[in-house]
């Protein structure tokens, strides 16, 4: 085992890898509870039952996808990077595809499955570098920042801090409401933990908020902590039964968005964490193909079990900071996700005010990419800004991506920078233009 994971070469040992894997798990364990709540549209009242995914089934699917993805990453790619269903992508799945577009969640899972298969094929064929190089860096950063604003907006809504206002669309909610006060308490607690550098600050923030909610009678006390593993039957295999419904412009854009965000989110996370761990060689990432394949395989498995796109987690950097250097840490993280399957009764205490702080804090972390955009070049600033602002204002990640990818070739052509536009960007321009024409029709 030590030889396979190259402990001596990396200067590590079992205890460091175990602590690193546990730290990574605690840093991202919040997804076990946030993901089921998000995919079931738990914060949206008065929806038909068929629009909601089963929370118990999604909980199991989330844990399985995270465990399988982390195992693949650890054993095949040998990196201390864990995977789980991605924040932002789960919001896109629920609030954009299902709630706004009216696409059945079963069909949305088919879209996730297809995007994972395409990702795997691109990785095996070696075309990933071509695609990565075709998308300008500024648009990648803009998409990340836009998703951050979008899920923060959802978090404020779930908290009751931002509410509907017929006069000005949105406004400030009732800050004296008990549920809203609980969410505000959670936000402050989580911020304090994060500022103090507490490992797993988001997870512990949710835990403290839940306990406070129970104490003040805002959340019902769970009848048990440990229970049986929830059945995955309501969601398992549903992705296979709706593949015939994905051949539309609307679903093509959905699939491309799943693929695009996962593709670049994973690439960025791999480089960032590997660089932190000192695993980069001559500014290149060894075994990059295996790492990307592990990510795509996890997405396929997750879609089959019943969850949104699985991706590499930047929270893995917490494990690296704690000493993780090898893939064994990811194996440890996978083990904790499997162990977590027995704690499903805690889903009952994970309400909208409890998940809201997690969404807001993750949003804050994601908008850091704003500083990487060259705002002094107007031809870049326009598509970047429109990408970012369109996501929360239209309540759609896909719309933000589409707007940015339409305006980028236009502004670049007007600036006389035609040679800098990759041919793939022209193809995306027409696809996203057709998307808007389809919606208008």
Automatic annotation (TrEMBL):
UniProt KW Transmembrane keyword: yes
Q: Which InterPro entries match?
A: Azg-like, Azg-like_bact_archaea, NCS2
Q: Where in the cell is it found?
A: Cell membrane
Which domain of life does the protein's organism represent? Bacteria
Q: How does it sit in the membrane?
A: Multi-pass membrane protein
Key words, A-Z: Cell membrane, Membrane, Transmembrane, Transmembrane helix, Transport
What broad class describes the main subcellular location of this protein? Answer: membrane
The residues that cross the membrane are 21-44, 56-76, 83-102, 108-127, 139-158, 178-195, 202-226, 246-271, 292-314, 326-347, 354-373, 385-411, 423-440
Q: Which PANTHER family match?
A: GUANINE_HYPOXANTHINE PERMEASE PBUG (PTHR43337:SF11), XANTHINE/URACIL PERMEASE C887.17-RELATED (PTHR43337)
Q: What is the similarity comment for this entry?
A: Belongs to the nucleobase:cation symporter-2 (NCS2) (TC 2.A.40) family. Azg-like subfamily.
User: Under which name does UniProt file this protein?
Assistant: NCS2 family permease
Species annotation: Metabacillus herbersteinensis
């Amino acid at each position: 085992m030590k030889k396979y994971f190259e402990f001596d070469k990396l200067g590590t040992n079992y205890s460091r890898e175990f602590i690193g894997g546990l730290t990574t798990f605690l840093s991202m364990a919040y997804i076990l509870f946030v993901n089921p709540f998000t995919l079931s549209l738990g914060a949206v009242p008065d929806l038909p039952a068929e629009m909601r995914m089963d929370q118990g089934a999604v909980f199991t699917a989330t844990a399985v996808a995270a465990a399988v993805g982390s195992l693949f990453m650890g054993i095949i790619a040998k990196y201390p990077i864990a995977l789980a269903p991605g924040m932002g992508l789960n919001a896109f799945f629920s609030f954009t595809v299902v709630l706004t577009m009216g696409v059945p969640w079963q069909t949305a899972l088919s879209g996730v499955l297809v995007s994972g298969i395409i990702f795997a094929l691109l990785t095996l064929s070696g075309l990933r570098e071509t695609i990565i190089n075709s998308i300008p860096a500024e648009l990648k950063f803009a998409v990340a920042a836009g998703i951050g604003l979008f899920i923060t907006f959802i978090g404020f809504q779930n908290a009751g801090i931002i509410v509907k206002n017929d006069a000005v669309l949105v406004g400030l909610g009732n800050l004296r409401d008990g549920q809203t006060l609980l969410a505000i308490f959670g936000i402050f607690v989580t911020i304090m933990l994060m500022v103090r550098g507490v490992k797993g600050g988001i997870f512990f923030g949710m835990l403290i908020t839940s306990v406070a909610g129970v104490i003040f009678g805002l959340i019902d006390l769970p009848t048990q902590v440990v229970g049986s593993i929830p059945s995955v039957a309501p969601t398992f295999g549903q992705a296979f039964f709706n593949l015939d419904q994905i051949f539309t412009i609307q679903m093509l854009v959905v699939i491309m968005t799943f693929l695009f965000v996962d593709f670049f989110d994973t690439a960025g996370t791999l480089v960032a964490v590997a660089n932190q761990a000192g695993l980069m060689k001559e500014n290149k990432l060894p075994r990059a193909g295996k790492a990307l394949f592990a990510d795509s395989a996890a997405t396929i498995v997750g879609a089959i079990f019943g969850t949104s796109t699985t991706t590499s987690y930047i929270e893995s950097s917490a494990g690296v900071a704690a000493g993780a250097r090898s893939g064994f840490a990811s194996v440890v993280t996978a083990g904790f996700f499997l162990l977590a399957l027995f704690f499903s009764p805690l889903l009952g205490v994970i309400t909208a005010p409890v998940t809201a702080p997690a969404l807001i804090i993750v949003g804050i972390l994601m908008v850091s990419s704003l500083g990487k955009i060259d705002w002094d070049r107007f031809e870049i600033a326009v598509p970047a800004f429109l990408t970012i602002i369109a996501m929360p204002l239209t309540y759609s990640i896909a719309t933000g991506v589409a707007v940015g990818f339409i305006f980028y070739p236009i502004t670049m052509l007007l600036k006389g920078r035609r040679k800098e536009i990759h041919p793939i960007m022209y193809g995306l321009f027409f696809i996203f233009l057709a998307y808007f024409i389809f919606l208008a029709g």
